Amino acid sequence: MTTTASSASLAEYWIEVNRLEEHSGTAADIGARLARSALTTDSAVTPNAEFHSWFTAQRRSKRYEVRRIPFSELAGWHFEDGTGNLVHGSGRFFSVEGLQVRTSWNGQERSWTQPIINQPEIGILGIVVKEFDGVLHCLMQAKMEPGNLDTVQLSPTVQATRSNYTGVHRGSRVRYLEHFVPPYESGRVLFDSLQSEQAAWFLRKRNRNVVVEAVGDVPGHEDFVWLTLGQLYGLLHEDNVLNMDARTVLAQISLPPGHGRPLHSIQEVLGRITEVRARRELVQRSIPLADVGQWRRGEDEIAHEDGHHFSLLAADIRATNREVTHWSQPLLAPTEQGLSAFLVRHVNGVPHLLAQAGTEAGVLNVAELAPTVQCQPGHAMSLPAEARPRYLDLVLDAPRSRVLFDSVQSEEGGRFHRATNRYLLVEAGEEFPLDVPEEFIWVSEAQFAELLQHSNYVNIEARTLVTALRATRAVRGDIPR
After folding, report:
1. CATH class of 266-283+335-476
2. Is the pLDDT confidence value at 51 over 60?
3. Alpha carbon separation from 376 to 301, 337, 341, 359 (Å, rounded)
């Protein structure tokens, strides 16, 4: 699909710049334009039927092969002498190392060791938006990632590590990168912040999440498509269509909130996070992968001896439409589908999500706001009752009438192999108490939007569910214009 903006002369370019400055310079104006896009569930630019035909063809026509191999066949990768760390010969991309973790909270201590992915470079996850017929559209890419279910999913305009976009892999250039690097002459930045990724598996990993409104012509390409926010929200209700990177960037795009006063002020929410970060102890110490206890390394897998958590494997990958068409790499493979769920309750007419201050092995700053329940349910149910996640049974036993959102979504396909989470929004009901344990707090959608302007307050699973809440509002037409 190659729908493009019409060609613009230099004079037309400056007319468009002036128009944007005149009618979209304030937060209220931008919010109204985003709301219009969120409520537009079909588009003449890319009709829904045309999109589904294009997307099906993308999955069928591109040639991909992902083949599991022994570690000894990894090209450019090796286990480092002495440490046993799995590293790339260039010293770039990422490495698999060991991590020793100790946590303490309210007199309860835990400690463990595990493998973890260390990728210190900050990549770019960016969406270009542009107005067609008075409605903002997002430029999305059909992108293959080796670990994805169905291989091809819908990704941001640009999804690139620093190694990718600086050419370390010696592949072709990253298309549309010019919109996300200075001097931003082709548009203006609407949202921009550094956000964390899966801290259970990444060590202090962050990426830049950015949305840029384009000015002037944006050339089309067969692997890219223009969709409204409303169309994207509709696709979020489908399993494994919008990839993790698309969902986290969409979380940055805030919509006008409804009327009503939140239960807590934003200062109280920040104070609760600060309180947990100050009182909860988290000690992280990098150790050699060879020194990680209870994990066993075989010819083609590193796995925990109890069969839970995840394993590390090696894959050989071939793809026709990537910057590099043939490579091999390690992938992290969870042992089961995860569960991420928010309990939702309306307070003063405002929907609130019950967030917990969650601590994971590789988190940057002790704790981030996480879903009410976030776990691997099979492993969680194998634990003694007192050690299971709070509210797990309430979420798992919720009647369908109280489930506001339910879909299965893939996680980072570039580093994880077939990693999926079941994402749920569950109505708690008026009988559920507003007074909750101190590591939990009720947070409104508007407060999440405010926190997402900054870094490391909201974890990646919570960001998907904030986007899901907006998607449910859009489907109901519950968005102020």
Report:
1. alpha beta
2. yes
3. 20, 6, 12, 15
